[in-house]
Amino acid sequence: MYQAIPYRTCIPTVTRDLPITGGGIHETNVIKMVSENAVIIIGTRGCCLCHVVKRLLQGLGVNPPVYEVDQDRETAVASQLSDTAAETVQFPAVFVGGKLLGGLERVMASHISGELVPILKDAGALWL
């Protein structure tokens, strides 16, 4: 009988004992990941909306990493990302080309209106 090999499709938080406030390693890694990835989804652990956004982007040919934030660090990560994005960040947050695209509603609206594919192409996440 065959057995499935488990794999991770998310980026887990670094460690549970590192502080998120005051320039800790954890928040630096989040900002660094946003700037290094063409597309990244940041959401809370076990968020079903993150899964929906990821499946939508995978359907377009993009395989974005998902960064899961623990619930106890959600406020700190959101405020740190809000400082860099110059607007309020709510989870799930989709960053394209280092800039905040928005949450599920904004991504779906962009997809329905036909704006999402050009945005992904400009960010280098889609080559079609």
From TrEMBL:
The keyword Cytoplasm applies. GO terms for cellular component: cytoplasm. Pfam families: Glutaredoxin (PF00462). It is found in: Cytoplasm. Keywords: Cytoplasm, Redox-active center. Residues 39-100 form the Glutaredoxin domain. Belongs to the glutaredoxin family. CC-type subfamily. NCBIfam families: GlrX-like_plant. PANTHER family: GLUTAREDOXIN. This is Glutaredoxin domain-containing protein. It comes from Trifolium subterraneum (Subterranean clover).
